[in-house]
Records
---
Amino acid sequence: MKSEIVMHKGFLFPVPTPEIIIRIPNTRKIDHISIEELETAMLLVASKRIGSTKVSLIQEMTRIYGFNRVGEKIRIAMNKAYAQLQINGKIEEIEGKVVVL
């Protein structure tokens, strides 16, 4: 069976794309974690932490992935994942709280 591999946003993915797997505990740098993986994890965390704000959700994601603090690169990656979830209609903010749709 011949499989195809495509590059998407700097990461290699097989075609067809399998389900995104969240890999924790994590020893990777934030640059080595795809936005798609962060989106998947963020959606799961948001569904379990009812009433989270965007800031608390990003802090929790940072902790789950084993980072000591929310540095600039981590903040940018988490904000990209958060924005993509909003664009895709999977989450929205209501009165400052993150709601999974």
---
Amino acid sequence: MATDTQTRNKEIVAQFCTTFSTGDVDAILDYFAADALWHITGSIATSGDYDMVAFREFVTGVGQIAEGGAITFTYVDSIAEGDRVAAEITSTAVFVNGRTYSNEYSWHVEIRDGKIWRLREYQDTAHTVAVLAP
């Protein structure tokens, strides 16, 4: 049986997906602790660690290449234990290069004081490279 904390943390992740889909950078960053870190796994150009300064630049850049100014993230499901949430997420967007971005993710999220403190993202990096290639 899920605790109130686990339920709340799962709701934070689900609500974050909805907010990210708006492209509102300030609202997106409001979900994060000041010392948060987003890590994208893999060895492609977008892989690595993003503190909130770098993440602001990253999200702003995504808004410039996605028609409508954002990638739409859809929360599928999650499990939670303590302050950790493992979530299945999908995304879709049409980029200005005319290609459709449609990816699947596993997000491992750590919540502290109601804010995302760590997010580790696993995705289909081959798809990302194919869609973003010149």
---
Amino acid sequence: MQSSDKTASTTQPVVDVVLETIIRVMRQSDITLADNVLELGVDSLTGTRIVVAIGEKLEIEVSLETLLENPVIGDFSDAVIEIFEDWQQYAGG
């Protein structure tokens, strides 16, 4: 049960970082987890800014490919959570 508690405790903060970062980079306050970044007009430069900012905040590496393969923000958040949890496990955290 401890690992699921840890997972639950890391999920929402990661989702918050992802959503807040996209809102800040896109300068649009009405973005939700259901939005598609491609439909919002994210290009490769903006996408790179998003993944770099998320990576710096969470101290992980997130690729532009991860964003483009998961353009719905909720799905992208799930992918970032998976990267974050894998890194935590790898780092022994």
---
Amino acid sequence: MLRTGKQPHPHVCSPRSIWEYDGQTAQIDYLIVTRKHRFVLECRNLYGNIEINNTRDFIRTMPAGRGFKKRAFIHPSHKITVI
């Protein structure tokens, strides 16, 4: 755990946490805890142009040869299960 900050906003940052519950596991890139809030951060190493369409799909456009290639991927919030 990395403890940083001084009053009035002390917080704890925990990088790369593995959580287990009811036989399920989840990997969290960063968990930041303050007195009032908890933040779960997912980090991605993406390149290209990222667009979000009106149905919340992520579409990445990347250079490919002389043109461009598009690839859709799942919105990160769709991977979350609330218990």
